[in-house]
Design a protein that fits this description.
With about 400 residues, the chain is α+β, with helices and mostly antiparallel strands. The chain has helices at about 10-20, 100-110, 135-150, 155-170, 175-185, 225-245, 255-265, 270-295, 300-315, 320-335, 360-370, and strands spanning about 25-35, 45-50, 50-65, 70-75, 80-85, 115-125, 190-195, 200-205, 210-220, 340, 345-355, 380, 390. It binds adenosine-5'-diphosphate and magnesium ion.
Length: about 400
């Protein structure tokens, strides 16, 4: 299979040489991701099904052995951030630089002798759009340091390092899906990931060969409501599992859902807990349904499952917003096979499964619906299933 190229990208080696006065030891890329199905399941030990985007974070990197870490992003103002690796400490600020610095910290915490680096980054992954620009940054850094310091870590191990950086150094409570997708995805496939044991399977998802396309619609909105909502949903899911006497909601099979919801109601569970449990267990089941359809070559039939997933996120988990609902509604009215919000919600992006021949019409209909509702124009692009982290040269 040919190397996926990022059609939007520039070469960070040029910037690197200008900043640091030498050529980098190498160039690495790691993609953003979009999740096809399985939302808010990853902190319940459940299933997710992301695919890597053609959009990547790219890093030009040279190894250093003097304890100095220099970081630069072409995409944010502020110039080079210079840090000492032995002084790296969690929650110390550093803004955007905390993501790559956290990776170096997490590697050292895990006992790997990483002694410094010069890094120049640039990324085409839209930030804050639910497409994991943060994981792309972490994974590209982890992959580069893994290669330059000969650490021999696997993709899942690099993902765990990236997550540790984001959770414990930056201080953002995210699940493992984003880093696993960025580290482990394969071109032309979606990744079936079991977040309990990180076992994974590459599920063929060659849309173009079937005359299909998956559009990503970035609503370009981010409602403040989202900040506390993740923690609240997470706590609600933990309450649900505790009341049901199971370790995690993953341990409740879909065929036992109705009985479990009655048990919860009888136990006096909060109405919101009952909704969260219904979402998580049914979305886990939707992942299994989509996989069965993909394996059977019946990709079109996944469309209605995406629509079900959206309704569940909107009505049970209540993490959608008017802009995301409008994408789903307008896309379906214009003849899409199915659509759903993706990522954390309250803004960010939606995915739309369409016949390739209808992609233009559907995209236009969504844009027009946004204009008619007085929203800013959404960003729309084709989510071609692309490769995970790799060394470019
Ligand atoms: P998402 O991962 O959904 O895009 P996050 O809030 O998790 O959103 O991560 C976005 C943050 O990641 C940005 O605020 C910034 O700190 C960092 N980031 C992402 N891309 C870049 C980049 N190209 N350069 C510098 N920082 C970046
Ligand atoms: Mg992120």
């Amino acid at each position: 299979m040919t190397e996926t190229t990022d059609p939007y990208g520039t070469d960070p080696a040029v910037t690197f040489a200008e900043l640091y006065g030498s050529e980098p030891d190498g160039i690495w890329a790691a993609p953003g991701r979009v999740n096809l199905i399985g939302e808010y399941t990853d902190f319940n030990d459940g299933f997710v099904m992301p695919l890597a985007l053609p959009h990547t974070a790219r890093a030009a990197v040279s190894r250093r052995d003097d304890g100095v870490l220099r970081l630069y992003s072409a995409d944010v103002p502020g110039g080079v951030v210079s840090l000492r690796v032995d002084e790296l400490a969690p929650h110390a600020g550093h803004g955007w630089a905390a993501y790559p610095a956290g990776v170096l910290w997490a590697l050292r915490e895990a006992g790997h002798p990483v002694t410094g680096a010069d890094i120049a980054l640039t990324s085409t992954v839209p930030t804050g759009a639910g497409l994991s620009s943060s994981a792309a940054l972490e994974v590209v850094t982890a992959q580069a340091l893994n290669d330059l310091f000969h650490l021999g870590l696997t993709g899942p191990e690099l993902a765990v390092v990236g997550r540790r950086a984001e959770n414990d150094f930056v201080g953002v409570p995210c699940g493992i899906m984003d880093q696993m997708a960025s580290a482990c995805c394969v071109e032309g496939h979606a990744l079936h990931l079991d977040t309990r044991d990180l076992s994974l399977r590459q599920v063929p998802f060659d849309l173009a060969a079937r005359g299909l396309a998956l559009l990503v619609v970035d609503t370009r909105v981010k409602h403040a409501l989202g900040d506390g909502a993740y923690a609240e949903r997470r706590a609600g899911c933990e309450d649900g599992a505790r009341l049901l006497g199971i370790p995690m909601l993953r341990d409740l099979r879909h065929e036992n859902l109705a009985t479990a919801l009655t048990t919860l109601a009888d136990a006096g569970a909060d109405e919101s807990v009952i909704r969260y449990v219904r979402h998580v267990v049914s979305d886990n089941h939707r992942v299994e349904r989509v996989i069965a359809l993909l394996d059977a070559g019946d990709v079109r039939a996944a469309g209605p499952v995406l629509n079900d997933g959206h309704r569940s996120l909107r009505d049970d988990l209540r993490v959608s917003c008017p802009e995301l609902d409008l994408v789903v509604e307008a896309a379906n009215e214009a003849g899409a096979l199915g659509a759903r919000m993706t990522g954390g919600g309250f803004g960010g992006s939606a995915v739309v499964l369409v016949e390739e021949a209808a992609a233009g019409t559907v995209a236009k209909a969504v844009s027009e619906a946004f204009a008619a509702a007085g929203h800013a124009a959404p960003g729309i692009f084709d989510a071609i299933p692309s490769a995970g982290a790799r060394r470019l040269r």
